[in-house]
Amino acid sequence: MLIPYSYRKGADNKLATFYYFNTDSEQYAVRFYHLGEIQSKKKLMNCYSIAFMLSKPNGDTLVINKGLFYRVISTVITILKEFMAEKNPLKIYISPVENFRKDRRRFRIYKYYIKKLLPLDYRAKRKFLSHTFILEKC
Length: 138
Description:
Layout: E1 7-12, E2 16-22, E3 27-34, H1 35-39, E4 47-54, H2 69-87, E5 91-94, H3 105-117, E6 122-126, E7 133-137
C-alpha cells in the first residue's frame, strides 16, 4: 500500500463523521453517514455509508485522472480502517458513483482494492442487484 496523504478528522456527531485530506492540487472529503440515525431504523443502528469525493460542487462525479488514484484510495482505506476501529460498525455500505448508465469502473476497482486491504474481522459482499457492496462484521 502506498503512503497515504496526511488527513484530519472534521465534524463527528450522531449523524455523520467527516475526514479531509489534500493532494498536491485537490482537497478530498471522506464522509461516513450513520444510516440508523438518518433513517430512524433500528435495524440500521451501527450501520454506515461511506462517500469520498473532491470537496467541490459535483465532486462526487468528477473523474480526476492525474495518476493519483492509488495514493488517494490508500488514504481512504487508512481513514476507513481508523473509522472501523473507532466506531466498530456492523456494516458499511459503499456505492461508487456512476458517470453514465452501467458505469461499473469505480465499483470494480474499489471493491477489489478494499477487499484486498480489509481488516480480517470484516468481509465484503455485493448487495443483490445493485452497484453497492457491504463491508460486514464477521
